[in-house]
Structures are given as structure tokens and as C-alpha cells.
Write a structure and sequence with these properties.
It is a single chain. This protein has 515 residues and is mainly β. It has two domains: 79 residues, no CATH class; 374 residues, no CATH class. It has eight helices and 30 strands. Strands 8, 9, 12, 13, 14, 25 and 26 form a seven-stranded mixed sheet that branches. Strands 5-18-21-24-23 form a five-stranded mixed β-barrel. The protein is globular, with a radius of gyration of 22 Å. The N and C termini lie far apart (51 Å).
């Protein structure tokens, strides 16, 4: 098996991105392992994933996948392979209940506790915000939840924050629309993902609230009930573009002001993954481990090291090494490909589509403002690049709706007790209909774009630090406000419809200068 250095991996990833975009029939391409006689070999190959193989004599010459690929900066051409595997990936926000009623005593273990209220917070449990239709709606089961991946350190202010997906907490906010407000199907106007004070049913909220457990698992969207489950507010969300998305992430600040915040956080518990150390799940002593995040080199060599994989999700509970319920000891998970490039579908039903926003009587879909043709072709399916793709050994033994946001972990140096360590490799963001294959965004990209590092029990603050909020109860084009005798420039949205995207922090802000 060939080993490439980090610079060569970057060149290979860019080539894969170029290949996948060059032909609309090549729906997903990644770096994987060649398969011969239905068995993986030790040869790395650039893989075209297809739902069905077609003989070469029935394909036009333009649609034939090359037998090898030359990458400038890599000594030898890289062999290719065509493998039958799902390509229709979708985001996994939860919109279904496990049973047709609010009685969670009927839910099976080990899944049950992942969907219940858990204090203090830890990774692998139910999480969400209010639904896109607002509170107290007769159809509230609407993509308002997923999984808390885990806690991290926000190095911008040295506080502890929670990590999950954009599409779990931020209603799939995107940075390509030149609009200053988003109006949903219920007529609610969301002026900024960081501000909810102008949504009629969210009285008293100044930022997007975060609940644990989520609306679906509590089986109500009554605000008075959800207030008892509030654990924080959305701090940052990285917007989607029509093309070349690497991450699907939002982070939230833990709420220290509410009536229910006293048991929210623990230095000795909150760095853990829920049930990772349960009997037969992840190893008997692994619940005490403080998880590091995998390095770029470790991520680039996942196909070579082939470590065991584990994740804990709101819907599936603990899955992966060394085998876990509900599928039994044969249910393991492995890395299928890295550098994967392909689209992810954010459509769910006709009443609300993530990534589609209504302004007046016009519906806007995800698109790239610099290249409108991208949005016209991708519609509600933006392309994600440089993803890690996983495969469960048992059909149905992978991620399901509601597992989005989970930290995916790998056991490096499994055979060496002195060096063996579980590390986070990414944040789960999408899966497919057989619930066997799923993808995640790389943890090194997430750490870079959000300036995060792993939380391992340090004595740090939670909540907001050095932040003053002044609530403006009506729309204003004023760009400054005086708070505590100091002049501040606003950083939400104004009536100005011209926005720019700040990739360093993933915010959507007006096209103005800020201090």
C-alpha cells in the first residue's frame, strides 16, 4: 500500500475534487482501496462510486472512468477502481420518533438513554433547537434535532462549547443568499442565526436556544417545557455554499444563567462519550479516556492504519468496535474512503426544505453567488469535498437520522497497549437509505475553521466571555450602539441586502467594516 505525505494528500484531494466536478455522471469520487474478487486489497485507488456498474461498451468515451490518474507532485500514476456503493447521501437531522407516542419507557437499550435528558452534558446525546415552524405548532416534528458530538475549547475566548452540525442547530443556514432575512413557512422571520428576538413565539430569547433533549424526544414544542431543557445558545454556525463545502458544523455556548444550569457541566464527566465505556462497547475502561483529536497525518493515513471505528448517536446509540447492540458483535465499522467528493441532499418534504428559504413569494435555493450555475444544477444538494466515508459490516449497522453531529472516533495503535488511543476523526453529517454507509467532515478542518481544540477536563469557563448584548426590538439600519458607555459595531444583519462571507469564522455579516 502506497504512503503519501500530507502535501501529496492535498494534491490528490484537489484532483479528486476536479475529477468529480468534471462529469455529472460521476456522482462521488474518493481515495479508497481497490477491490478484487469482492475483497479489499492493500492498494490505494481513486474510486468512482456508482449505484450500478455498466459495461464499457455501453458508455460513451467521455463517461469512461480512467484506468489511472496522474497527479502532479505524486511520483507514480494512481490506479482507479469502480465500486458499487450508495451515492445518494442526505443530512441526518431527526424528524421521526422511535415509537408513536411520548412514552420513552418502550425505547430499547442501549439506545434509550441517548435520547433522554442527560446531566451533566457529554457527547453522543439528543440535542436540538426549536423547529423551523416555531413553537407550539401542530406539526412540530420537523428537523429540529440531532446529536451533541461533544465538548471542545473555543480558543477565541478560552471557553468550553458544544459541537454539532449546522443542519442540527442552525436550520442549514447558508452564505450564498444575498438576502438579509429568512422567512419560514409559518411566517416567522429569522434575521440572523445568532438572534431570535424577532421571532414571535420566541419571546425572551436573544439568541437561538439549544435544548437537550430535543423537541422530537421530548414529544412537545411547548416553549414552557423546552425552557426546562435549555442548555445553551448557538454561538457560531458555518454557512453552506453551493460547492466545495468541507464542514457542516455549529457550536453553542453553555447557558449559565437559566434556572436549570446548575448541573449542566462537569470537569470529570463532560469530556466523555456517553456509553463508550459500557460493557462490550468501546472497551471496558474507555469511558475514562480523554479523547484527543486526530492529526492531519493520522487522518490522511486512515486507509493504511485501518483503525476500529466507534460513534455514539442520538438514534443508534453506541455503534462500532468491538461490536455493539442492537446488531451484535458482528457490527463493526471501517473507513471506506477519504477525500470523498459528492453532494448531500438537504430536502425532506414539501412543507419545509433545509437550504430553501422563502422571502416574500419567492423561494431561494442553495447556490453559489459567484457561480449561479452551481446552484441551478445542485439545487438543494450542495457538494461536500474532502469527506471521510465509512462502511458498517452489517447492513443497517451504520448511522441513521438523528445521529448527525456525532463525534466519530478511531482507535489508533490498537495492538500496542502503550500507544493505543481513541481519537476523534470527524463530525458525522450524512448517510444514505440503507443506513450502512455514512460520512463525516474531518476534525482538522473543523478545528481550523472554528479555532477549536479538544476539551479534556481543563478548569475553564462556560458561557459567553466579554460579551455585552443589547436587544433591538425592531429593525434598524443603525450600525452602532452604545452599551455601557462604549461604542459597538453591530455584527448581525441589517436591512442592507449585500452580504459577505467571512470564512475564518463562518459568519454571514453585512458588507461593512467592523471593529
Amino acid at each position: 500500500m502506497s504512503n503519501y505525505n500530507n502535501q501529496q494528500h492535498e494534491l490528490i484531494e484537489l484532483k479528486i475534487r476536479e475529477l468529480q466536478a468534471s462529469n455529472p455522471t460521476w456522482e462521488e469520487v474518493g481515495l479508497g482501496r481497490k477491490i478484487k474478487s469482492n475483497k479489499r486489497t492493500g492498494e490505494l485507488a481513486i474510486v468512482l462510486f456508482v449505484t450500478k456498474k455498466i459495461t464499457s461498451n455501453k458508455l460513451s468515451s467521455n463517461n469512461l472512468f480512467p484506468e489511472s490518474i496522474t497527479v502532479n507532485g505524486v511520483d507514480d500514476p494512481i490506479i482507479t477502481d469502480v465500486q458499487v456503493s450508495p451515492v445518494n447521501f442526505r443530512s441526518l437531522a431527526c424528524y421521526d420518533l422511535p415509537v408513536s407516542g411520548p412514552d420513552d419507557s418502550a425505547w430499547p437499550e442501549p439506545i434509550k438513554s441517548h435520547r433522554q435528558k442527560q446531566r451533566p452534558l457529554k457527547g453522543g446525546i439528543s440535542l436540538g433547537t426549536f423547529g423551523p415552524r416555531g413553537y407550539d405548532h401542530p406539526r412540530y416534528l420537523s428537523m429540529a434535532g440531532g446529536t451533541l458530538g461533544g465538548l471542545a475549547i473555543d480558543r477565541d475566548d478560552n471557553t468550553v462549547v458544544g459541537v454539532t452540525n449546522n443542519h442540527v442547530l442552525a436550520h442549514a443556514i447558508n452564505g450564498a443568499e444575498n438576502i438579509s432575512a429568512i422567512t419560514g413557512p409559518r411566517g416567522l422571520t429569522f434575521w440572523s442565526i445568532l438572534s431570535t428576538n424577532e421571532t414571535t413565539p420566541a419571546e425572551g430569547e436573544t439568541r437561538y436556544p439549544v435544548y437537550q433533549r430535543n423537541v422530537n424526544d421530548e414529544y412537545t414544542d411547548s416553549k414552557s417545557v423546552l425552557d426546562t431543557l435549555k442548555v445553551g445558545t448557538v454561538k457560531r454556525a458555518y454557512p453552506f455554499l453551493g460547492d466545495n463545502n468541507k464542514i457542516d458544523v455549529s457550536i453553542f455556548a453553555l447557558d449559565t444563567t437559566g434556572d436549570y444550569a446548575s448541573d449542566l457541566f462537569s470537569r470529570t464527566e463532560s469530556y466523555k462519550q456517553h456509553q463508550m465505556g459500557a460493557s462490550g462497547v468501546g472497551g471496558a475502561s474507555d469511558s475514562t479516556k480523554k479523547l484527543d483529536w486526530a492529526t492531519t497525518s493520522e487522518l490522511n493515513n486512515l486507509l493504511t492504519t485501518d483503525p476500529p471505528i466507534f460513534f455514539a448517536g442520538r438514534t443508534s446509540g453506541p455503534l462500532g468496535w468491538p461490536g455493539s447492540q442492537p446488531h451484535g458483535a458482528v457490527c463493526t465499522i471501517s473507513v471506506q474512503a477519504i477525500n470523498s467528493s459528492g453532494s448531500v441532499n438537504f430536502s425532506y418534504d414539501n412543507s419545509y426544505k433545509q437550504g430553501h428559504f422563502t422571502l416574500g413569494d419567492k423561494t431561494h435555493s442553495l447556490r453559489d453567488s459567484n457561480n449561479p450555475s452551481i446552484g441551478n444544477s445542485l439545487r438543494n444538494s450542495p457538494r461536500f469535498v474532502d469527506q471521510i466515508r465509512f462502511e458498517a459490516s452489517t447492513t443497517g449497522g451504520g448511522a441513521r437520522g438523528g445521529d448527525s453531529g456525532s463525534f466519530v472516533c478511531a482507535l489508533f495503535n490498537e495492538g500496542n497497549v502503550a500507544l493505543s488511543a481513541w481519537k476523534v476523526v470527524g463530525v458525522l453529517n450524512s448517510g444514505e437509505s440503507s443506513n450502512t454507509f455514512f460520512k463525516c467532515g474531518r476534525i482538522d478542518h473543523i478545528a481550523h475553521y472554528f479555532n477549536l481544540s479538544p476539551y479534556k477536563g481543563e478548569d475553564l469557563d462556560i458561557g459567553y466571555k466579554n460579551v455585552d448584548i443589547k436587544v433591538v426590538n425592531s429593525r434598524s439600519d443603525a450600525v452602532t450602539a452604545e452599551i455601557g458607555g462604549q461604542m459597538y459595531w453591530q455584527s448581525g444583519s441589517t436591512n442592507d441586502k449585500h452580504h459577505r462571507h467571512n470564512p475564518a469564522r463562518g459568519r454571514v455579516v453585512p458588507n461593512r467594516n467592523y471593529l
